[in-house]
Amino acid sequence: MNGDDSRNRMMIEAEALIKDYGGIRAVDRVSFKIPAGEVFGLLGPNGAGKTTTIKMLTTLSIPDSGRCRIDGFDVVKNPMAIKRRIGVVPQENNLDRDLTAYENLFIYARLHRMENPREEIEAMLRAVDLWERKDSVVGNFSGGMQRRLLLARALLPKPPVLFLDEPSIGLDPQIRRQMWAMIRKTKIEGRTLVLTTHYIEEAETLCDRVGILSRGRLIALDAPRNLKAIVGEYVVEFVDPEGKLRQQICRNPEEAHALAKQRENGVTIRKTNLEDVFIRLTGERIE
Amino acid sequence: MTSEWFPIFLREMILFRRRLLRLGYLFSAMVVPIIYLVAFGLGLGTRVQMAGTDYLSYLIPGLVAMSAMNNSYTWVASNMNLNRVYFKTFQVFVQAPIHSSSIMVGEVLAGMVKGLFASVLIIVVGLLASSRFSLSPLFAGTLLLTCFLFASLGVITGMLAKSHEDTATYSNFFIMPMAFFSGTFFPVHTMPAVIKGIIYILPLTHANIVIRKEALDSEGFLSLLILVGYALCFFIYGSWLIKKYSE
Q1: Is residue A283 part of a domain?
Q2: E strand residue ranges, A138-228
Q3: Residues of A in contact with B89 (CB under 8 A)
């Protein structure tokens, strides 16, 4: 999976994907290509179409039009080939709450044709620090433990492509960083990762490239650094006479300092983040 | 493909075993047929003759078929719908590299086990309560076929119902009337001609006809064919619904 050839190979290709729900367009002509080994992020607010895009790529939802391929296989025409290549950590917990952690992984392993998965299950549960709780019913787990188990389950058959839909949603900052460390490890192992998030820091920390979705449309796609460079590298924040927080993006530090001097109190200069890019492109905040 | 269905079946059996240990589950599977057996069978059983036999002996095979229908259907429909709509565990099956027919087989076999479990309890009570009630290969085969048919119908309901409340509505409209009018408690031929025509469309009517036969005559053979036809249609349609599943 390593090497220049494999990295240049397109692992995921989406072409003009469209999905409507009850007359509302959830995904509107979304196209992108993801080379093997890349961590690709879909960033956007709730309802932007991130989860719907993931569902189409993972055979759970059939596109109304457009095409998507994974490792050269068409998702609609050859779903079985796709299912052998992907692991999915869904946004909504779909673990069996009445089964134990071990039973959840065992059933999943057998569904994915692993004949004797006991050793792999033990290794995976140890990797996510849940081996001691292997015989506990999952319904009694905390949110963080359930997210870790979802990740362990998705990685169990060693899929070359991993989809993570809001992998750290609802987690406290410490557990979120543990989750990020696990995700980074899967990248090091050579997997192609697609993750959706509305956490700016998560997208900036983990992703090689980020696609920004707004109202079902992909409005920008590039490396986080390049996206930020498009709008300017610094932001001056100040409180206006009406008490509202205002932000102005500047191309360079000199421009930012000059602008800050014009204001009296409560002025802050900081580096641009992807939310600033989103606000500049859409006029909305990511929430 | 041979064992693709096994993890689906295994999952259901682990959950079933866990629920069996709770007293309420066992009780709920038995309570309705036992009430009917006591109220109609023991109450009327010795005083009323039906189709040339005492009422209790007439009633028991019907209660077994009804119990097979109720339990195979209800557990599958309810579980499938909850797993699909609320718990989302159905996504795990759909995203696994297995065929839709394997999901169907796993769910239907699990539904059959639940239906058979409840039916066996009634059979045991029936054997204790009536000396004229006996088991035959035809009885056992019809029982299996009834469980298969209604578990397949349960998958269809579980896939089509938009909410858990909808599954109860389907049950009230189709399963409940079938339980009362399909020959469980009284012979179908006593009903008015118009209603009889409708009743003969219902699969439980034919299950009741065959399960009461000691040997397969022409009426029984026709009902058996109808049951097999229903079972195949429900199974194929259920598999197709799973194959076409899209969120």
Answers
A1: no
A2: 161-165, 192-197, 209-214, 217-222
A3: 94-96
Contact in structure between A117 and A109 (CB atoms under 8 Å): yes
Specify whether A64 is located in the same domain as A199: yes
For residue A252, tell me if it sits in a domain.
yes
Its domain, for residue A26, covers: 4-227
pTM for the complete prediction? 0.88
B99-112 pLDDT tens trace: 999 999 999 999 99
Nearest chain A alpha carbon to B106:
A111
Q: How many domains does chain A have?
A: 2
Let me know whether A208 and A169 are in one domain. yes
- The residues of B whose Cβ lies within 8 A of any Cβ of A are 6-8, 10-11, 14-15, 18, 87-89, 91-99, 246-247
* pLDDT tens digits for range A6-20: 556 899 999 999 999
Find chain A residues with C-beta within 8 A of B18's C-beta: 98
Q: Clarify whether residues A102 and A168 are in a common domain.
A: yes
One DSSP character per residue, A96-128 reads -TTSBHHHHHHHHHHHTT-SS-HHHHHHHHHHT
Residues linked to residue A220 through DSSP beta bridges, in sequence order: A212
Reported as a single tens digit per residue, the pLDDT across A74-126 is 999 999 999 999 999 999 999 999 999 999 999 999 999 998 899 999 999 99
Q: In this structure, is residue A287 part of a structural domain? A: no
A192 and chain B in contact, CB less than 8 A: no
Pick from A103, A107, A112: CB nearest B97 = A112
Exposure letters B22-37 (e unless 16+ CB within 10 A, then b): eeeeeeebbebbbebb
ipTM over 0.90: no
Q: Which of A62, A88, A93 sits opposite B95 (nearest CB)?
A: A88
Q: Is A214 on the interface with B (CB under 8 A)?
A: no
To the nearest whole Å, the CA of A43 is away from the closest chain B CA by 21
Q: Quote the minimal CA–CA distance from A222 to chain B in Å.
A: 29
Let me know if residue A280 belongs to a domain.
Answer: no
A16 and A128 in a single domain? The answer is: yes
Mean pLDDT in each 10-residue stretch from start to end of chain B (247 residues)? 86 92 72 76 70 81 93 94 95 96 97 93 83 85 97 97 90 88 87 88 95 91 97 98 95
